[in-house]
Amino acid sequence: MVNSESLTGEKTVYEIGYLILPSISEDKISDVVDAIRKVIAKEGGTEIDAEAPFKENLAYTMSKTIGASRYVLSDAYLGWIKFEVDKAKVVAIKAGVEKITEVLRFLLVKTQRETTFTFAQARAVLKEKEDESEPSTEEKEVVK
């Protein structure tokens, strides 16, 4: 068993991927992201990279209970932040993000420093593949 004192001073790179409730207005999304950033900064984390949240349909519905209300959601704002922090501080960051009620779900993972994937790149590749699979106007005329 490793105690948290032995982890102090060991900096590690983490990434937090998060889903923000779709009921939050677009002008308030940055406030929620800033709240996540404040939790990271409060624990001494240094941001390395990030991707602004965008609205996306979920692969399956998710629910979130806030107070006495239960919400079932089929879309959410999706984003991520990559940061470096002492290993001992990760538990506090996780607990801090859990307290942000506008966050539907999040995933905190250890990762590498270099950003090798972004959602913007993935969407561009997907669009390119869709464009290639659509027949051109000349091909449509031949089919007729």
Automatic annotation (TrEMBL):
GO biological process: one example: translation
Family annotation (Pfam families): Ribosomal_S6 (PF01250)
GO molecular function term, any single one: rRNA binding
Protein name per its UniProtKB record: Small ribosomal subunit protein bS6
Biological source species: Candidatus Zambryskibacteria bacterium CG22_combo_CG10-13_8_21_14_all_42_17
GO cellular component, one term: ribosome
Family, as annotated: Belongs to the bacterial ribosomal protein bS6 family.
